[in-house]
């Protein structure tokens, strides 16, 4: 039976980097679940690879049509979600699904599929380090950065809803720990 692997974290904690490393191990038979979002793409992002980029109206229509497993309005008019069709596509090819999703989305997936889901929370070593990582991205203005930090503090308070918590202080150690958790679960 195919399994679901949920990786969630505050923005800037390293979840996407960890997922990109883990997915390289072909023995785990993992396929990345491409999320949908209503936010505009960043310069380096591609539609269908990094996200399915939808307009706010398209996203809301898919909500009405019950096309999402989970979705959240993360910021005002900035929606993120997992399309049912994405999971069907991956399961049909007999792969396990790995999610790189926001914290509430991760909790929702685990609630819907408790027996086949491993949920892992990637925690930054501390808020100061998280602020530094977000600042180094160069994608945030001061207002946006402060919003992300406030949201991160809230998300960290939800970490006990996950099966495992991995502190990403040293990236290589965090990748190895997550790999071992997934390997044992599968």
The number of distinct helices, counting runs of at least 4 residues, comes to: 7
Low-confidence stretches: none
What structural class is derived from the secondary structure elements?
Answer: alpha/beta
Cα distance spanning the termini: 9 Å
Helix amount? 40-55%
Q: Which strand order do you get reading across the main beta sheet?
A: 2-7-1-8-9
Largest sheet: 5 strands, parallel
From the spread of the alpha carbons, the general shape counts as: globular
Describe the structure.
By secondary structure, the chain is an alpha/beta fold. The protein has a single domain, classed as 3-Layer(aba) Sandwich (Rossmann fold). The strands form 2 sheets. Strands 2-7-1-8-9 form a 5-stranded parallel β-sheet, sandwiched between helices. A 4-stranded mixed β-sheet has the order 4-3-6-5, sandwiched between helices. The N and C termini lie close together (9 Å). The model has no long low-confidence stretch (mean pLDDT 92).
Topology:
Elements: E1 4-8, H1 15-22, E2 30-32, E3 35-37, E4 51-53, H2 56-64, E5 68-75, E6 78-83, H3 84-92, E7 96-101, H4 103-112, E8 117-123, H5 127-137, H6 142-156, E9 164-167, H7 171-185
């Amino acid at each position: 039976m195919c399994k679901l692997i949920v990786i969630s974290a505050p923005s800037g904690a390293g979840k996407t980097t960890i997922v990109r490393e883990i997915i390289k191990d072909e023995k785990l038979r993992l396929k990345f679940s491409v999320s949908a979002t209503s936010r505009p793409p960043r310069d380096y992002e591609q539609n269908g690879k990094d996200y399915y980029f939808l307009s706010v109206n398209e996203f809301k229509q898919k909500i009405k049509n019950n096309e999402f497993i989970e979705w959240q309005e993360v910021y005002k008019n900035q929606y993120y979600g997992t399309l049912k069709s994405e999971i069907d596509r991956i399961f049909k090819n007999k792969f396990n699904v790995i999610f790189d999703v926001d914290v509430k989305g991760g909790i929702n997936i685990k609630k819907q599929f408790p027996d086949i889901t491993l949920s892992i929370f990637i925690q930054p070593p501390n808020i100061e380090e998280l602020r530094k990582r977000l600042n180094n991205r160069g994608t945030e203005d001061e207002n946006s950065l402060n919003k992300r930090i406030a949201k991160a503090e809230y998300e960290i308070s939800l970490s006990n809803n996950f099966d495992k918590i991995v502190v990403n202080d040293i990236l290589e150690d965090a990748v190895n720990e997550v790999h071992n958790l997934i390997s044992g679960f599968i």
